[in-house]
Write a structure and sequence with these properties.
By secondary structure, this protein is α+β, with helices and mostly antiparallel strands. It is built from 6 helices and 13 strands. The strands form 3 sheets. Strands 2, 8, 9, 10, 11, 12 and 13 form a 7-stranded mixed beta sheet that branches. It has a 4-stranded antiparallel beta sheet with strand order 4-5-6-7. A two-stranded antiparallel sheet has the order 1-3. The two termini are 17 Å apart.
Length: 300
């Protein structure tokens, strides 16, 4: 039988942004995660725009530095028991993964995190500086590295920085084998175009409704595709020690070149009793109401 725990969540409402945060669950024994984000890709911004905010080269360097710090941390004994190490690497949904590693230790399971060795040149999706500066900087990256089973796969990751602090991982997921990242709609300077914030909230709400079996499917105005990972995973997961999702972290996203919408976010349950994190990379085609899963990762 599913157990629903009491919730502690930070509620943040943003409008007109490339990233949205409705519910950001945070670990009770750690600093509250930074609020909201923004997004864009590989085309080079104009010099004038680049001078006022994060550049593509800086974002790639931030990714490299994070990977180096992450790999070094994984070599530390029982790193998951040290809050300062977790806080240096993760925020939002990703922060909970470190907490769950404590459960792995208690039950004698091996750590779920593996070292990362990026191959090739990552693609960076960068939002306009003026669209993210007041609330912190963020970017999305697509990078290829081995998953936990040792298979080289493209992964999509969102990084967030607040008050000039180093970038930290907010959410990450491998792409499904038969899926790929959509091309973003770029503005004149090469930055990604803001997503539809209302659609973002509705899509996240539909995922929460689906997993928690709380409302009629499609109540949000959107439906999960028939071949989605969640539809296949839900029956098996629901029979186990499943705890309802209480909310989600920041929603990172952008308009696609063909007029659709891309969304990336992580879902979490009670921040005091975390036992699962679900990361989702989603696509809603132009004019459509069906949510297609491009990538998903269940961490428990």
């Amino acid at each position: 039988m599913r157990v629903t725990w009491l919730i502690v969540a930070l509620v943040v409402s943003l409008s007109g942004c490339g990233a949205v945060t409705d519910l950001v669950a945070h670990r009770a024994d750690a600093p509250s995660p930074a609020s909201s984000p923004r997004t864009t890709p590989t085309a080079a911004p104009t010099p004038s725009a680049a001078e006022t905010g994060l550049t593509l080269s800086q974002a790639r360097q931030a990714l490299r530095e994070w990977v180096s710090k992450y790999n070094a941390t994984l070599r530390k004994p029982k790193w998951w028991n040290q809050n300062d190490r977790l806080d240096a690497l993760f925020v939002e949904a990703a922060l909970h993964e470190g907490v769950i590693e404590r459960n792995h230790e208690i039950f004698g399971s091996k750590p779920g995190h593996k070292p990362i060795k990026v191959t090739g040149t990552p693609t960076i999706y960068l939002p306009r500086p003026e669209r993210q500066r007041p609330i912190g900087e963020w970017f999305i990256a697509q990078a290829t590295y081995k998953d936990t089973k040792g298979h080289a796969r493209p992964h999509v990751l969102a990084f967030l920085s607040s008050a000039g602090q180093p970038f930290k991982l907010a959410v990450a997921t491998p792409m499904h084998w038969d899926r790929r990242m959509p091309k973003p709609r770029l503005d004149a300077d090469g930055y990604i175009t803001d997503m539809d914030t209302e659609a973002a909230r509705a899509v996240a709400r539909e995922y929460q409704n689906f997993w928690n079996n709380e409302k009629k499917e499609g109540a949000s105005g959107y439906r999960l595709a028939k071949d989605s990972y969640s539809r296949k995973a839900f029956p098996a997961v629901y029979k186990g020690a499943y705890v309802a999702f209480e909310g989600h972290g920041s929603i990172f996203g952008f308009r696609t070149a063909d007029g659709g919408s891309f969304f990336l976010f992580g879902m979490v349950n009670n921040p005091k009793h975390v036992n699962q994190v679900l990361s989702e990379a989603l696509l809603v085609p132009r004019g459509g109401r069906t949510i297609q899963e491009l990538g998903a990762d269940w961490f428990s």
